[in-house]
């Protein structure tokens, strides 16, 4: 087992440590009508900086929050005062949601020590720990970004995997979206799932308190979804955010042969000719 999370108590004890960087990576679905940056400026963990998932993305893509190039990520991380050898603690305002995407993004660009605050800002508040207001003023740093392309899957990779059976695709969307019983929230996307994909809604890996499930529960959830943990996995979701919760959970149980499909269903469900099926897997 790897420890991919830290507790609010641990972070409180280590505030001010040299080389520790705290990142608020809150992001919300448009229907939630929440402004993550404004909420950060109203209240954040002392010393935190705000990482904007949408602003730090590939501006040339029509797909949401796709990974940027190395230079863009390096500039963003450096401007936030983060170097690749810092210890980075990521959190969000939901408990465990978008922080996993930021955890994966920092790791895939070469950050060596990234963890998620278990329970996020709600856990910090629940513990009665201090908060700051206002925008962050980090001291710029240099981040040497090197994209791990083996950790990222694209459309062609996933199509090949589905045809060859070389890996298992695990979809983090809600069951009714996966089966096609409910329309996709994004207009213009087909309903259903990729042929052969398995479904494990990400919230089954998150406790009611917003913390990551225990390792034995993680294993049971994946196995219950029909996933063979001895074989490679590609995680997917609606747009690449909650797929990272699955990736985080797999990292917690020590599984390394995992890729994330960056375009996820927004790409697959909107692409002409992409095979789609409905119903139970």
TrEMBL record:
Keyword NAD: no
Xref: SUPFAM superfamilies: Rhodanese/Cell cycle control phosphatase
Cell compartments where the protein resides: Cytoplasm
Pfam families: Rhodanese
InterPro entries: Rhodanese-like_dom, Rhodanese-like_dom_sf, Thiosulphate_STrfase_CS, TST/MPST-like
Reaction it catalyzes: 2-oxo-3-sulfanylpropanoate + [thioredoxin]-dithiol = [thioredoxin]-disulfide + hydrogen sulfide + pyruvate + H(+)
Domain named Rhodanese: residues: 16-133, 163-277
Molecular functions per Gene Ontology: 3-mercaptopyruvate sulfurtransferase activity; thiosulfate-cyanide sulfurtransferase activity
Keywords in alphabetical order: Cytoplasm, Pyruvate, Repeat, Transferase
Keyword Repeat in annotation: yes
Entry's Gene Ontology cellular component terms: cytoplasm
Name assigned to this protein: Sulfurtransferase
Organism: Faunimonas pinastri
